[in-house]
Design goal:
Elements lengths: L1 H37 L3 H17 L3 H14 L6 H5 L1 H13 L10 H9 L1
Amino acid sequence: MTSSNSRGAKLSEVLAELKAEYRQKFPEKLAKLRALHAGQDWPALKEEFHKLKGTGRTYGYPEVSQLCEALEQLCGKPSVSASLVEKCFPVFEKMLTAWQDGHLYDLSLNEDAQEILEGA
């Protein structure tokens, strides 16, 4: 039984490390998103939002997946609003701050996030 507890502890440790690495690399992901947005590369931006949508829940950040799902849809619309997509960057920054403080970010408390979610 101790062996099982040991494996569980090791798994928890590995998962915590992966989650920390995800947080650490998130600013790089934001920089890439900003560059794609600035260049109005909507197909590539849509693809990056799709990737983040998939990884958010996997790494324990469901708010990333929720927001990126809406952003992915916005990028797929022919009449995509660059200003609406642009509103995601401050939301992502607030998420990162919340994670660094040890908690998830509640999208329902952010007007820009709500506007993005409703616009999708």
